[in-house]
């Protein structure tokens, strides 16, 4: 991530909409640690730079954060049920 460019872009906007993440089944299965680090560190950088510029941030997530819940429609106040941390499949949902 090019932090100087990101800082300049944040400075030029009224609000930051953070929608980015490392995605893709192949990446998640083959590089679960990298997926977690990318998603957590990227969000951390966006939040810190936005905070320095006193910009509001809207962080978007994924339906993956609802885990293995079987209630439809999903509601934000339902309990979250994720799978085993030993399975790469869950390395995307956890940091989101």
TrEMBL record:
Pfam families: Epimerase (PF01370). It comes from the Bacteria. SUPFAM superfamilies: NAD(P)-binding Rossmann-fold domains. Gene3D superfamilies: NAD(P)-binding Rossmann-like Domain. InterPro entries: Epimerase_deHydtase, NAD(P)-bd_dom_sf. Coiled coil: none annotated. Residues 2-78 form the NAD-dependent epimerase/dehydratase domain. This is NAD-dependent epimerase/dehydratase.
């Amino acid at each position: 991530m090019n932090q100087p460019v990101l800082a300049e872009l944040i400075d030029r906007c009224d609000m930051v909409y953070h929608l980015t993440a490392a995605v893709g089944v192949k990446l998640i299965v083959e590089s679960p640690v990298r997926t977690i680090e990318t998603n957590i560190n990227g969000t951390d950088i966006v939040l810190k730079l936005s905070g320095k510029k006193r910009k509001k941030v809207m962080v978007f997530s994924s339906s993956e954060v609802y885990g293995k819940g079987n209630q439809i429609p999903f509601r934000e106040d339902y309990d979250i049920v994720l799978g085993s941390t030993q399975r790469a499949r869950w390395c995307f949902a956890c940091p989101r």
